[in-house]
Every structure is written in C-alpha cells, then in structure tokens.
Amino acid sequence: MNRFFKTALFTVFILLAAVSVVQGVKNALLFSQDFQYDAALALRSGINPYEESLHPTGALESGATADFYAFFEEKGIPQKMEANQFPSLLMLLFPMTFLPYGISRVLWLFLNLLFTALSIFLLRKTFLKEMDRDIFILLMLLMIAGTPWRNQVGVGQHTLFSLFFFLLAVYLSEKDIRICSGLSLSVSYFKYTLTAPLAVYFIYKKRYREFVISLIPHVVGTFAASVMLKTSFIDMIREPLEVSKALAGEGSIDIGALSGGASWSLMAAGAIMLGCVLMAVILPEGYDGRFFSLLLLISLVMTYHRSYDFFVLAPAACGTCLLSGDRGDRKDRILTVVYIILTLYIFFGLRVFNESSGSLTAAAFLFYGYLLSYMCLFKCNPEQRKCNPEQRKCHPEQRKCHPER
Question: What pLDDT is stored for residue 330 in this prediction?
C-alpha cells in the first residue's frame, strides 16, 4: 500500500471513529433507554417485570422505578417496560440498581467503551490473530465509526457486553482455564439472541464442560427468581419468552421482521439453531474462524435484531478473509467485494436513508445474498486444503484452486 494513501486512509478512519465516539457518548449520557435498569430494579424489588411488561398493574408508578420513568417523561420520550431477559440475566445488573439511574447510566457508558476496547484486544488474540495488522486496525476503526456501534452505545444496549464475555470465554478455553471460561460464557448470554447461537462454537470445539458450566448459574438464578416472585420455575422461563415474542416483528432484517412476526418464524429459528448444532457435531477441526463467522451471520437474522447489533459484521470478516486470502479465486474475490459493500451500506448507508423500508429491503437483499454465498463457499477448508500442482485440485470432490506458491 502506498505510504501516502495509507496515511490518508488511516487519518480519515481515525477522524470518523473519533466523531462516532463523541456522538455515541453524548447520546448515552442523554438516553441509554435500553439498559434494562428498570426491569432489573423491579426484579430486585420483588416486582414481576414480565407481568408488568405484558399486563401492567401500576406497581411501577411508585418507588425507585417511578424515578426512572419520570426521567424519560421529562425528556418527552416516555418508556414502558419490556423485560425480555431471563431473570438470571437481569440479576447480573443488580449491582447497578443500587445506584441512581443517572450514575448507573454513566457507569454503563464507561463499561461499554471498555467492552469495546477489550473485545478488540480479544479478537486480535483469537479469531482475527492472522489478519494483516493494518487491515485489522482499519476494520476496527470502521466498526467504531459505523452507525450500529454508535447506536449500540447511545441506547445502552448489551451486545458489546455479551460479545466481550463470549470472546473472553473462547480465550480462556484456549488457555484451558475451563471453569472461568464456562462462567464467562454464562455471562455472555445476556444478549442470548446473539450468543446462544455463538455458544454452539463450544460444541464444535468439543468443549462440553464449558458449555455445561455456562448453564448452571442460569438454572440456579431462575430458581431463585421463582422463589423471590413466588411463582413457578416454568413461568420464569415462559414469561420472558412471551415478552420476546411480542417484539418478534420489530427487528430490522431478521426472519421475524421480514415475516411480520409470523409464528412460523419462531419455528424457522428453532430449525436453524438445530442445524447449527448438527453442523457443529459433524464439522471436522480447522474451521474455527469460518464457523465463528457463520454463527455470527446466522444469529443476526435467526431472531430479533435491530440494526445496532450489526456492528458484529466487523468481526465476521474473519471468515471472508480466510476464504479470499487463501486462494484468491474469482468467486472468493466477489464474496469479499460483496462483504465490503454490505458492511459499508449497513454501517453508513442505512443512516443516510434513515432506515426507511426501502433501505432495509436493500440491506436484506445484500445480507441474505452474502450469507448464502458464504455458505456455498464454506465447504472447502482453507486450513487443511493442499493443492496438487499437477492436478490443480484441492481434493477429488472439491472445486479447483491455484497451486501453492
């Protein structure tokens, strides 16, 4: 890369990322409405947050929760409770609920910035460790500069939190610190629409101990919540799912959003999840980065996700780089171009068009086209494939590739 062009490119990306950070911080200080502070506070106070989400009784109109809603009423953006997290996950926020909402909002902003930095560090230590350094830096700057990351921080979402703990679980598992890895994986389930599919990665790696350990705190936490709220263990599983079901059609380009929240979209999500598990069981070693990327991509459309979660397209570059960097076939170069167009469009284009229905339709065409292309090219394993210079083939039943140079 030409030195002048490289310097100019880095300068532009750094400026864009800096502007995005400043705006994200401003938004977070003003809003952070998705923090789930109210649901966690209600649960800690002995109020069933799921009943208040589905059938409000007025219990939230007094006490500490009233102060939370008054904060947004004064800003002209009234909120309502949407407790779509399981009680064992809301318990993770209990320490924050001992602070006034204004202070906890600032603390959550700081933590989200910290989770961003630590996730970048862990990506470099795990799935993106083989990526060219300059490309990695540009990719991370692009992620921070994009609208999804900025909105993620601004509305106080939990995807950065969950992604960090998932990557930490992977890193600790690779270091064979298995109990801590399982506990980290357990914490990562806060954004289970993203990390439940990602947890299948541990099945693929045959790290069953970590996976089992990750479930134990939630069994205990769910039982504890049922005692606190004087209800059944089953209700503590069923009620959060009912709240989530009500939001099924409000995503951006996921199956539920495209189907208008149709009941069959939930069955489709279950079938896709089962397919991911079966794939994890039969997939041989050597697909780490590419399977991680596939699970990330599938998670974004399998269940409810808004566009602010699509910042994970940046770490999902891992699979595309492994495909295109190994061989450089025309099909793989096309996949890389589509990935770049898709990422730039979602990171910047949707904001230009204010996420209109037309712009989301275009994003859906790009995303599903890229996902299907990625899946079609997935079968040839770049870490195990050895080209035969004479036959110019990877394996007898696989497609041609260039000889090793």
Answer: 65
Report CA-CA distances (Å) from 254 to 36, 60, 189. Answer: 22, 32, 19
pTM over 0.85: yes
Cα 127 to chain centroid, rounded: 15
Residues with pLDDT less than 70, the chain: 1, 324-332, 379-405
Q: What separation in angstroms does the CA of 103 have from each of 34, 99, 109, 165, 317?
A: 15, 6, 10, 23, 36
Q: What was the pLDDT predicted at 331?
A: 66
Burial 190-229 (b: 16+ CB within 10 A, else e): bbbbbbbbbbbbbbbbebeebbebbeebbeebbeebbebb
pLDDT at 1: 65
Neighbours of 331 (CB within 10 A): 14
3-state SS, residue 52: helix
Residue by residue, DSSP assigns 98-127 as TS-HHHHHHHHHHHHHHHHHHHHHHHHHTT
